[in-house]
Structures are given as C-alpha cells and as structure tokens.
Amino acid sequence: GTMVASMTSSMRYGIARGVFSNEAGMGSAAISAAAAQTDSPVRQGYISMTDTFWDTIVVCTITGLCIAASGVLDCASLTASGTYYEPYRGGDLTIAAFSSVLGKPGAWFITFSIVIFAFATILGWEYHGEKAWEYLLGSAHYNILYRIFFSLTAYVGATTALDIVWSFSDIANALMALPNLICLLALHKEVAKDMQTFQSLRKFKRP
Length: 207
Fold this sequence. Notes:
This protein is mainly alpha-helical. The chain is 79% helix and 3% strand.
C-alpha cells in the first residue's frame, strides 16, 4: 500500500509539473502558434511539438540533475545567527544548487534567468487569455478590462502561499486539459487527414 501510494503521488506531481512546464494537451500553445505566419498549419504544428522536448526533456532534466547532484535537496537554509529555516523550495532550491558549485555568479545567473522566464510566462499567458476573451466577446474593445483583471490576479498569485498557488494552478490546468483532450479525440480524423496531405505534398516536392 505504501508503494502504491508513493507511486501514485509521484505520478500525480510528475504529470502536474510536466503539464505546467510545457502546457502539453491544454490547448493554450495553439493560440500562440495560430499567430505565426506559415504556409501550412501542420508545419507549424510540427514546430510547436518541439517545445515539449526542449522545455521538459532538455531544460527540466538538466535542472533536476543539477539539483540532485548538488546535495542541497532537503537541506535547510542557515542564517548568520545559526537559525535554521525550512528546506529549500521552488526557485530557492535551484539557486542554492547552482550556487553550491558556481558561487554567487551562478546564483545571480539563475536568479536573472528565473526573472526573465517568469516575466515571459506572464506575458504569454496574458496573450492567451486576452485572445480567448476577445474571441468570446467578438471584439477587442473590452481587452482593457481583461488586462486589469489579469494584473490583479498576478498580484494575488505573487503574494499568496506557494501551496495554494500550486493547487490552484493544477486545478486550472486540469480544467483546460480535459475539454481540449476530448476535442482532440473528436477531431483526430481531421488532424490525421491534414497531416497525410502535408506529408504527401512534401514527398511530391522532393526532386
């Protein structure tokens, strides 16, 4: 029973964090991909599929291996007065892992990278939500209302306990993934047809 519970918990967090990092199956990345200029949606789909590989297989794997090899996992931070805090979590864990080998330059580099990544992520999700809002209302005149609401939401998320934010994110991702996956199953024949047409055109163009 303990093994089953541990494996189930590991799978739950693995899937949740994987979806959070690459957005696979949620349908949000398609909003950005739809804005690209391309001669075929299938070609853009192939390009978008590489996002999951670079984001999860490359970046997340390297980060995880660095944390595991650094020895700071489950280690508590120590203040100058000798008081122990809770074990490193989130961004603090990554910063501590890289600084254990690279020192302060490594800590500053990771901190800067996290800030840039977080800012780019906020802009990306704002764009996704704004386009969905614009589609539902059929007009871009009310986008300012969404931007104000999004800014307030971002502030609340940045000042709320981390456990609450993670739980809300997991629930929101699941609510997006479930209807999107159902639609993908319903449209799988059309997707396969477009892909086969694109592949046949590629073979036809080859010398």
